[in-house]
Amino acid sequence: MQALLFDQSVQRIADETTGPITYQPDVISPALAARWFTALHEQVAWHGGTRMMYERMVDVPRLYSHYAIDDPLLPAVLGTALAVVKEQVQAPFNSIDLNLYRDEHDSVAPHNDKLHELVVHQPIVLLSLGATRTMIIRRKMPPHLKTELALEAGSLLLMGWNAQLHYDHGIPKLQQPVGPRISLAFRVRPHATGSWGVRAEGSDK
């Protein structure tokens, strides 16, 4: 299922016991990543949203979209991206969530995926396009080990289903200016549909 586990260029952040979580840079070239970013930035119908936080409604600090794999309106770039991902990770992906981080003010809080909306033992794979942003991966149980991982354009991050039980992950806001980033999250859902509401980086939160 997870060919990335056997690639010598892959950085292993968590093992099979609590993960796996692996990171592979340069899955596609910087030039191709830039073309895909431009196409998706222009073609996708991006949405905003709100959520309850601290007893008040606040704007979700990023834009998002979603496509089921069999959606007739699936942009061609996403179909090509899916083929690239499946060359690296053998899984029956049926859902792609997109998140657009417009600048340094956009973020996602530490979280894990909701397991009831994922097929058991199937991985989550994130493909990054655009500016590099740092993901914080933190183990839930003591000693709360933390990894700061720079997600570069053209890279893949794989998270095993069981990693959601042991780790939180998030992308913090930054103090310094940074350009926009698009994240593509490939998942295997029990029932893929065309509308999923607000999506976070590797999560439903």
From TrEMBL:
> Which keywords does this chain's UniProt record carry?
Dioxygenase, Oxidoreductase
Q: Which residues form the Fe2OG dioxygenase domain?
A: 92-190
Q: Which domain of life is it from?
A: Bacteria
One MF term in GO for this entry? dioxygenase activity
InterPro entries to which the protein is assigned, alphabetical:
AlkB-like, AlkB-like_sf, ALKBH3, Oxoglu/Fe-dep_dioxygenase_dom
Q: Does the keyword Lipid biosynthesis apply?
A: no
Q: Does the keyword S-adenosyl-L-methionine apply?
A: no
**What PROSITE patterns would the database entry show?**
FE2OG_OXY
What protein am I looking at? Alpha-ketoglutarate-dependent dioxygenase AlkB
The species this protein was found in:
Dyella lipolytica
Native organism taxonomy:
Bacteria, Pseudomonadati, Pseudomonadota, Gammaproteobacteria, Lysobacterales
